[in-house]
Specification:
Strand content: 15-25%
CATH class of the largest domain: Alpha Beta
Number of domains: 2
CATH topology of the largest domain: Alkaline Phosphatase, subunit A
CATH superfamily of the largest domain: Alkaline Phosphatase, subunit A
Largest sheet: 8 strands, mixed
Radius of gyration: 21 Å
Strand order of the largest sheet: 4-3-7-1-8-9-2-10
Mean pLDDT: 94
Low-confidence stretches: 463-472
Helix content: 25-40%
Shape: globular
Number of helices: 14
Length: about 475
């Protein structure tokens, strides 16, 4: 398999525990993801570069930590237009490329380089979440919906038309199903033409608002329907507070429904690879963009914390890789500390690209781990959102939080997310749930990690501008 096909599946806010094969929760069934794990390798210590989507996604598409262009949070996140995208690299190798789903690198506009047709994707069907408070509606995308909801309501409820290339297209179908259908069509077409392909499938599931389900699905599950927001801006925050934990009735049930429907589409896509006769020639990767959102009823057990925070629950994510050509496969577990920036070099390495195609990356190829030759991961990983930062070095993790910042106040007031005390230190080997703060017991380790992060920041950050983290920016783009 000299030039395998590549399928990169990115979900939105999926909880670390929310897969049935893990046996941690008992109210969700995910046979598609379970199959992927059973036939591939699971990375139990995989991290994204930020606890929110925009900076995390920009690092994923470029292979570099977003701090290199000064990005820390929603307000200053952007597409790294000075770097080659992963799709452009695959295009150079002669791959057909497709992007289907949610786009959210920053305040992207139609025609910008931040949009998929302008950074290497030939076949596209996508929605610009940066214009719609960080989300895509699950059910409605049309000019008619925009007119019905009004300017603010259309943005808050994320009903703008989808896009093919630079052209708006109406889609009044359940978006998860539509994304799955289009992914299978793309795969089938490439298989019929015997063309290698790179498909990036970016589901909007399971981002809030998960109660946006097809009527027949609501009936099947015995769940009540709820209305999108169509009001003016002043009332939105109060309404929003009723759509998240703990105020939303049946919140976990809605979340599970969206997750299971996404999983079904993943299972169908795996089936399409089988029926097209190319499963053995296709690498499939699954991860989510940041930690699970507990305000949207995700479970990150046994990890602590949630999206928006630098607890493990905000930055450690499921990472599954099925590479049929790997000698180690079939439910293997890898203990290497991995980063989402590793996917850029790993996938190009598996496709036979020269090292020069990914030598700009902060990530490293995981090929050795997939081949069972190495479990050595990153010695250090760093996170920096301006008002909070963290470093992991070996078994140790330090977190620093500016308790007086607008960012922290916004997280607590709007998202009901607690970023934790001002300084904490954890031994992740002995205490992966971060239950015990060792900051006062090990000042020597604390000093070493603080120095390591200061050195990293000096080296990596191209801009030291602090992001604006007002309440509006925290909830409108979350």
């Amino acid at each position: 398999m000299s030039r395998p096909n590549i399928v990169l599946i990115v979900s939105d806010d999926h909880g670390y525990a929310d897969r049935s094969s893990l046996g941690v929760v008992d109210d969700v069934q995910t046979p598609g993801l379970d199959r992927l794990a059973a036939e591939g390798m699971s990375f139990g210590q995989a991290y994204v570069t930020a606890p929110v989507c925009s900076p995390s996604r920009s690092a994923l598409i470029s292979g570099q930590h977003q701090g290199r262009w000064g990005a820390q949070w929603f307000a200053d996140s952007r597409f790294p237009d000075h770097l080659p995208s992963l799709a452009e690299r695959f295009g150079e190798l002669g791959y057909r490329t497709a992007y289907l789903g949610k786009v959210h690198y920053g305040p992207e506009q139609v025609g910008d380089r931040a949009t998929p047709p302008h950074h290497g994707f030939e076949h596209t069907f996508y929605g610009l979440a940066g214009q719609q408070m960080g989300r895509l509606n699950y059910l409605r995308h049309s000019d008619a919906a925009v007119a019905e909801y009004g300017e603010f309501g259309a943005s808050a409820s994320a009903v703008q038309p989808m896009l093919e290339g630079d052209e708006p297209v109406d889609c009044e179908e359940f978006l998860t199903t539509e994304l799955g259908r289009r992914s299978r069509e793309f795969v089938e077409g490439c298989a019929d033409r015997d063309e290698p392909f790179f498909l990036m499938l970016a589901f909007n599931a399971v981002h809030n608002f998960c109660w946006q389900l097809p009527p027949d699905e609501l009936r099947r599950r015995g769940l009540p329907s709820r209305d999108d927001y169509q009001g003016d801006e002043p009332e939105y925050l109060d309404w929003y507070d009723g759509q998240i934990a703990p105020e939303l009735d049946h919140g976990r049930d809605y979340y599970v429904a969206q997750l299971e429907l996404m999983d079904a589409e993943i299972g169908r896509l795996l089936g399409q690879l089988d029926s097209s006769g190319i499963a053995d020639d296709t690498v499939v990767v699954y991860l989510t963009d940041n930690g699970g959102s507990t305000c949207n009823f995700a479970s990150n057990a046994p990890l602590r914390g949630t999206k928006y925070t630098l607890w493990e629950g905000g930055i450690r994510v499921p990472l599954l890789v099925r590479w049929p050509g790997a000698p180690v496969n079939g439910g293997a577990q890898c203990s290497a500390v991995a980063s989402s920036t590793d996917l850029y070099p790993t996938l190009l390495d598996l496709a036979g690209a020269p090292e020069s195609a990914y030598d700009h990356c902060d990530g490293v190829s995981l090929r050795g781990a997939l081949e069972g030759e190495s479990t050595a991961g990153h010695e250090e990983l760093h996170w920096d959102n301006g008002f909070q930062w963290a470093v992991r070095a070996g078994r140790w993790k330090m977190v620093s939080v500016d308790q007086d910042s607008d960012g922290v106040r916004g997280l607590r007031q709007v998202e009901h997310a607690d970023p934790g005390p001002a300084v904490r230190l954890h031994d992740l080997v002995a205490d992966p749930g971060e239950a015990r703060n060792l900051a006062t017991e090990r000042p020597d380790v604390l000093a070493e990690l603080e120095s390591a992060h200061a050195n990293w920041r000096t080296t990596v950050f191209a801009s030291h501008c602090e992001p604006s983290t007002s309440d509006d920016q925290l909830f409108e783009r979350g």
